[in-house]
């Protein structure tokens, strides 16, 4: 309780700042009304007709909305440092970020999480971390670190840790695995929000999964899937990222059925920095939803108040007295271009560009540690028998789930030569075990070359795809040299490399330059034939994530992600 | 976390009970779908297709909705014991009650509150108490007890105490009164919900009031008032009781403007037992809202999930896994007649009728303690000068707020004789001070008689209205004799009395008989001319409540409830 709010509200004391002549986006009734916003001590003291302030900004009829909330993301997936990432989010009006640092945790465990917390928390944004629940995501792969229930419990006391990150181990939950249950119980008893991850889980299995105390899910790809989850009590985080575009299907369904939306929020999960720079995150989701026929005020509520409520952030998400003064002023509700972004009543962008960055420390550099020598034989055709049939990962345009195809061993050489098929391999890169998982993939599209990345969800081993073993070896060596990143090889030569010096996941170069470099390497990949339906590197990095159906590859081998077993 | 939920959800263990072949009211998307509800250990394990159970009830296509929530009421206003009151609520599907026992607290302080807690908590309902914040409501009257911030803080540790009851002392909040602020701060810091009470408060004053940490309000009488409060961040509890009928105006407005409703709940505030018996409470509100064009699923969400969220009751308000198995099975969504009501998975009605009642104890009886002798001179016309002008309380049909009228002293005798005007008096009845406040009232309608009650909000002094002093004296004596209740006098004779033996507020006789007696005495009052726009006794009892505009009467005198001062 702060007496100054009351005195400013009553007009008896000057506000620190008044935003004058605004159109207030009221996320409670989902409508707009005219008014001024009086701010004191970082909080909204009042909305109405106010003049008494130390500073007045006339917003001249522009729209004053609550600061937006990205309800679920992995900052590491932007490949930028938390500082650089936050700047891009702030630029487009996101003032609250809920991030699950499970990428870095898979490489560096709690040291990685603490770096992410430290680097995000000094920025002018509400920066919350969901403690990664599944490191590694499954027992079917080798990550840099394993996080046990005991370490998860310790994280509870860290300021900035909001809840438990996405519980991807659906079979573990359904079987009542002791370690999984311990993690859930610890966070549940502490009253924290538990994020779920239940792609295509339905019926009795969905009921069983949720009954263990799961609160949210961001994996729905259709309205039917989202509706079943909503009905079952999950909050649905509608995902619109660089690789996953789920918003259209879900929002179209919700609009068509005039469904209540108070248990829906927006999130990106994984979105490239260049994409964020171009269009923002939640602001982009709001715009898409509005274009699909949703009332824009409702879409803004989904992108602010709803997320705040789902995550128990009581004083965030609305333009009303007592709420933290996190605000975005939009030029209008069609273009949604921010004129101002405030965090705790202060110009967040101005503050952000003044912030110096936190040095990640040597421990987080030099994370690529491959066992043995990688040669063409590591990926060679000698691994395939001509008289056997092999499963093929079939990429699905615009999606991260995959179908399961097949090819006879005899047809592999010609399919590779015709660029209709690629080899794909996961090279363990944390503990020099020498593990290599080798498989086949269709639909990626690259011609006469290879692409490789040390971003390989979620264990972040080195993932390489190519039209022949020779190109792949060159790619692997390039990433060994620079200690992680993205690389492209064409006809045996490296044509571009983007180093990701922090854990092989993130770059410590400035956000703008990083975006340019990312755009350049991506464009080069498209020029080499990568399908326009995929992000050349983000989509690729999901091919190693064994919790998403149907077929994946890990450092242990080709994996059936529906039945949770390797394909022999 | 309960493993059995998961095992039942997966179909691996039998449920305790399955409600088979239902239409599930989904309050998340506000729609209906077909399914079975599997219950174990008092919780919903799953919704879907289920058969494995110890007991199966085939609901044959009827509608399974969440148990309803009455978000704000004063059980004492039913004049029944908590046990009798709860039975009537259960009959119509309310499984969660949030009650503010400020009536009994005004008579007996924490002893009264503890009785209400004890008597409600053993019933098969979720019985929550909001700790009365304003006992007495204002310093402008004398109640039986004064509750200070220190006593309020002690109540925090009582199981069953949910938050702070309606903060009616708006001027105290706006002026930052130390005692008021202490109460608010104590409950705010404990993370509890703080109920507000801000009739007609608007603009800067509303902003100032809310900024002190108020969460809810149930006093809106128009959509414009409700909308301003919603926009300002308050949860609006739409009131539909015996005396106050605010639902139509608010819901019509919300429907017309297609406003989002997630911050709206339903409540009764004060509703007579007979009215509850006839039509229920929240179920009646849902029906009214539906008749006004609101989607019935949305109205049910307002009457269940929304209230649960507003009050932070995380596992109440929905038919979904992990929620407490509080359910009401309605025959259809037009008539809304409950076929079954479950609390924690058990037939609540069957449990309720088996419960014995808690004896209130002698201390709560014998509460009428009037000082000096009451004679006709106490209320006589000698109190009015012929050459002065007097303010008159003008009752407004269907409302509890009043207008302020006037009459010249010379005109009083004839107006009384013609039954166009009544005398109204508040006789202090707790500490025998001999205080009497005397005034004039128009619009009540009684002819050639008097009505009196020891229910006089909120200090519960003895309130008597009559067409001449002689009738009023007879009425006062009748209530002295029976130690509180309602009485009616016609031409100098008592024609009916309903004793309210518990604190002069509640009757310990069974609910059904009480309802009959209430109906009888009310009908008699109407026969004596009381306006059909009012409840003869409930409406009357509000004439003493100095926190509702415009004019009220207390034991100290006639009170200007807009400017918070007595009228000399």
Please give the count of helices of chain A. 17
Distance between the termini of chain A: 63 Å
Beta-strand percentage range of chain A: 25-35%
Mean pLDDT of chain A: 95
Helix coverage percent of residues of chain A?
Answer: 25-40%
Helix-strand makeup class of chain A? alpha/beta
**Tell me, what's the shape of chain A?**
globular
Oligomer category: homodimer
Q: What is the C-alpha radius of gyration of chain A, as a whole number of Å? A: 24 Å
Tally of strands of chain A: 27
Low-confidence stretches of chain A: none
Largest interface by Cβ-Cβ < 8 Å: A-B, 59 and 58 residues
Main sheet summary of chain A: 8 strands, mixed
Structure description:
2 copies of one chain form a homodimer. The first copy, chain A, has 568 residues and is of the alpha/beta class. The first copy, chain A, contains 17 helices and 27 strands. In chain A, the strands form 5 sheets. In chain A, strands 1, 2, 3, 4, 5, 14, 15 and 16 form an 8-stranded mixed sheet that branches. Chain A has an 8-stranded mixed sheet with strand order 18-17-20-19-22-21-23-24, with helices on both faces. Chain A has a 5-stranded parallel sheet with strand order 6-7-8-9-10. In chain A, strand 25 (551-554) and strand 26 form a beta hairpin. In chain A, helix 4 packs parallel to helix 6 (178-189), helix 8 crosses helix 9 and helix 11 packs across helix 12 (296-310). Chain A starts with a helix and ends with a strand. Chains A and B meet through helix 1, strand 3, helix 6, helix 7 and helix 8 of A and helix 1, strand 3, helix 6, helix 7 and helix 8 of B.
